[in-house]
Write a structure and sequence with these properties.
The complex is a heterodimer of chains A (about 500) and B (about 250). Chain A is built from 22 helices and 10 strands. In chain A, the strands form 3 sheets. Chain A has a 5-stranded mixed sheet with strand order 7-6-8-5-9. A 3-stranded antiparallel sheet of chain A has the order 3-10-4. In chain A, β1, α2 and β2 form a beta-alpha-beta unit. The longest helix of chain A is centred in the middle third of the chain and has 36 residues. Chain B has a 6-stranded mixed sheet with strand order 6-7-8-3-9-10, sandwiched between helices. Chain B has a 4-stranded antiparallel sheet with strand order 2-1-4-5, with helices on one face. The longest helix of chain B is centred in the last third of the chain and has 18 residues. Chain B is globular, with a radius of gyration of 19 Å. Chain B contains 11 helices and 10 strands. Chain B is α/β, with parallel strands linked by helices. Chain B starts with a strand and ends with a helix. Helices cover about 40% and strands about 25% of the residues of chain B. Classes of the chains: A alpha/beta (about 500), B alpha/beta (about 250). At the A-B interface, α18, α19 and α22 of A face α2, β6 and α4 of B.
Chain lengths: ~500, ~250
């Protein structure tokens, strides 16, 4: 019942949203997207036409674009290459005009380019560039004694190494798989000669490296633009003008790399990075410790509500499965299949139906929590002593009373064990809710992953683990309350 | 009165009860005697309507037992099984009054009946608040008996009611059951594999083997005029050896 109180408390702030117009700003879950979204959010706030809701760290293009298309967010930063390939699904679309033509029917506006192009690039150290006389990628031809280290994605994608190699006719002595952050270190240490980078990586602002010119224009453009709902431009013209005026053409590659470095390498909060770029008063530092109570409430809300609903659905489904065995097998298969859907994919499926935020997260968490509850209810009921059930018939107990007086109490230990499993698992799964703006401890984990910052990740992961322990302990107490005393006495007698 | 007429019941192809006929006159006790697998428990379940005979018919107090009449028939029967089959999540009192609660008796009537039953079954009042796991085997069986008698049915079916008890408790409860049957004038069909129990309870005994009736009659009939050598063998197998009897 405490959870109910929490849920009411959390619902209250959302309820007073009606008075001022709101701009919901989204971002993907990597540093640059956070920084850009924070820039957008602060410009909207400074313009004063609307309130801002930050829906940052959404998990990938599919989720964040679906959120924009469904109206769950109003604006987010995107890249032209991604618009063509992932959203319009037509790599032949290269001009802004063609992208605008493609997105107008969906009621979506493509802003002016912000100035930088975050695309793949090949990097070498300055000494290597001088020694090998490298200025452009085509200079690499015939340098077969060099070694390279590429990111797994780059090695795999046709707009990465396979295509690059074909178009430029490149060969290296050795090509290794290496994660980006490590590759920079390997390059600096001289253990590899060529690495792939993103052209606005924070490290580029700090390390003495040279980006080789893509002289055959092989890499597609990934110019940053704002994607916004038509309504923002129409309803909030001053805000839209401020965004275009202060961002379009203002962020070149070097500037963006510097901002990324401040967030990624110096560990400055996104809000502070954005505020110092925009000038004027720096945004207040928000420490994790101050966020924690709110995130805890959000997390409890997610776990509590999804668990209550999953129990309310799962126990009757388990009863139904036990009553109709064939239907039951289908049902158990169904909830089993739900479990095999990767959590992120399930969250993504929710967006067209429920938008982003807490509701789709709750629905997805419920679906995930169902399996242990349905399965344990079913298992508890079908394994009851047949003599006790036969006796119930003889004593004149019919369907519902037999269920309520005899079967459910006898199976209560097993059913409760299923609910307990669901609860503990849901505490963990709920951290994924942050990817669709559901809040909770996952917010810190998603931010920490974007920053590659173990402290921020742990600030979310440790409380989640502690909460799992608390939930476990809570259920030990609940066991005492919900399991009939006679069953506990029997367990005690068996233990003696 | 309980009447079975040429009743056959098969599980798959295997007959577990074959052409069994027997009559239990109202107010008398009849013992079904036999080893394990003789079909004696199956016969009780046929009388309760939990199983439907493949051939022949069963009737209780003149009502033929069918799936349709099963509820009415069960209301006329109290059923006691080995180890009681009590519900572990209910107290002794709640177990005993379950049939009354299922029929919506008011609390006062239930309390009154519970007190009467506890006296009848010789169960101390404080024990009524205990859960089955907190009772001894004999106490559990008394609660099972109270539950069977709760609605004061004219017919009692008992399946090895004393089977799981230690010898002293068994002897004590045996005497009390006998008194209760007589006092209340119940029509009783009692299943046992124990020859002494058959001797104590049954003026009429049916000896079963592999689903068939071997012999029906009084204990004296079975002992003195055995229908087959098996009857003598069965009775003697459980008798005390003469050397031991000499000590007692």
């Amino acid at each position: 019942m405490g959870l109910l109180a929490v849920s009411l408390a959390l619902a209250a702030p959302a309820a007073r949203a009606a008075d001022a117009p709101v701009v919901r700003v989204g971002s993907k879950s990597f540093t640059e997207s956070y920084v850009l979204a924070e820039l957008v959010a602060q410009i909207v706030e400074r313009t004063g036409e609307a309130r801002v809701e930050r829906r940052f760290g959404l998990g990938g293009t599919g989720i964040v674009y679906a959120a924009l298309a469904s109206g769950a967010i109003d604006v987010y930063p995107e890249y032209t290459g991604t618009i063509a390939r992932a959203i319009l699904k037509d790599p032949a679309v290269t001009t802004l005009a063609a992208m605008r033509a493609g997105l107008t029917p969906a009621g979506i506006v493509v802003g002016e380019p912000l100035g930088f192009d975050n695309t793949y690039a090949l990097a070498v150290t300055r000494p290597t560039a001088a020694r090998e006389r490298l200025r452009a990628i085509s200079d690499l031809r015939g340098r077969g004694r060099l070694t390279a280290a590429f990111d797994a994605g780059f090695l795999d994608r046709d707009d990465g190494w396979p295509g690059l190699r074909r178009v430029y006719g490149l060969e290296f002595r050795d090509v290794r798989i290496m994660e980006h952050a490590l590759a920079y270190r390997a390059l600096a240490a001289g253990s590899v000669d060529v690495i792939d980078v993103f052209s606005t990586d924070g490290q580029l602002a700090r390390e003495d490296v040279v980006l080789l010119d893509d002289d055959r224009r092989f890499f597609p453009d990934y110019a940053a633009v704002l994607l916004a709902r038509e309504g923002v431009r129409q309803r909030l013209p001053r805000t839209w003008a401020a965004l275009e005026g202060q961002l379009a053409g203002r962020l070149d590659n070097a500037t963006m790399a510097r901002l990324n470095a401040e967030a990624d390498l110096d560990g400055r909060p996104f809000a502070a990075v954005a505020a110092s770029f925009l000038g004027g008063g720096g945004a207040a530092m928000v420490s994790h410790a101050r966020e924690l109570p709110a995130l805890t409430l959000q997390h409890l809300f997610l776990v509590g509500v999804s668990l209550v609903v999953a129990t309310a659905l799962g126990v009757p489904l388990g009863v139904l499965a036990a009553r109709r065995r064939r239907l039951g097998q289908l049902e158990l298969m169904g909830v089993g299949v739900l479990q095999t859907i990767p959590a992120l994919a399930l969250l993504a499926f929710m967006i067209p139906l429920f938008g982003i935020g807490r509701l789709p997260a709750l629905v997805a968490l419920c679906l995930y929590a169902l399996l242990p509850i349905v399965r344990n209810t079913y298992a508890g009921l079908v394994s009851l002593d047949p003599q006790l059930l036969e006796m119930a018939t003889v004593l004149g107990l019919d369907g519902t009373r037999r269920l309520a007086w005899i079967e459910l109490p006898l199976a209560s230990v097993t059913i409760l064990a299923g609910i307990k499993t669901s609860a503990v698992v849901t505490v963990g799964t709920a951290t994924l809710a942050a990817f669709i703006g559901g809040g909770g401890y996952g917010t810190l984990i998603v931010t920490g992953l974007a920053l590659n910052d173990a402290r921020t990740i742990l600030a979310g992961a440790v409380p989640a683990a502690l909460l799992a322990l608390v939930v476990h302990a809570l259920f030990e107490v609940l066991d005492r309350l919900a399991v009939p005393r006679g069953l506990r006495a029997r367990a005690a007698a068996a233990a003696r | 009165m309980i009447a079975l007429t040429r009743v056959t019941k098969r599980f798959g192809d295997r007959p577990v009860v074959e052409r069994v006929s027997l009559v239990v006159e109202a107010g008398t006790t009849h013992v079904l005697l036999g080893g394990s697998g003789s079909g004696k428990s199956t016969l009780l379940r046929l009388v309760l309507g939990l199983l439907t005979p493949d051939e022949g018919e069963v009737s209780v107090d003149g009502v033929r037992v069918t799936p349709a009449s099963r509820g009415d028939v069960q209301r006329r029967i109290g059923y006691v099984v080995q180890e009681g089959a009590l519900y572990p999540h209910l107290t002794a009192a709640d177990n005993a009054m379950l049939p009354a609660r299922a029929r919506g008796w008011p609390a006062a009537r239930m309390a009154e009946r519970l007190a009467a039953l506890a006296r009848l079954a010789d169960l101390d009042r404080p024990l009524l608040e205990r859960y089955p796991a907190e009772l001894s085997g004999g106490q559990r069986q008394r609660v099972g008996l109270m539950r069977a008698l709760a609605l004061d049915p004219p017919v009692l079916l008992l399946d090895e009611p004393l089977g799981a008890l230690d010898p002293l408790t068994r002897a004590e409860l045996q005497g009390q059951l006998l008194a209760i049957f007589r006092e209340l004038g119940k029509t009783v069909l009692l299943v046992t594999h124990d020859v002494r129990e058959a001797f104590v309870f049954g003026r009429a005994i049916t000896l079963l083997d592999q689903g068939r009736v071997v012999q029906q009659g009084t204990f004296a009939d079975l002992a003195r005029r055995p229908a087959t050598p098996l009857v003598t063998a069965f009775l003697r197998a459980q008798a005390a050896p003469p050397e031991m009897a000499a000590y007692l």
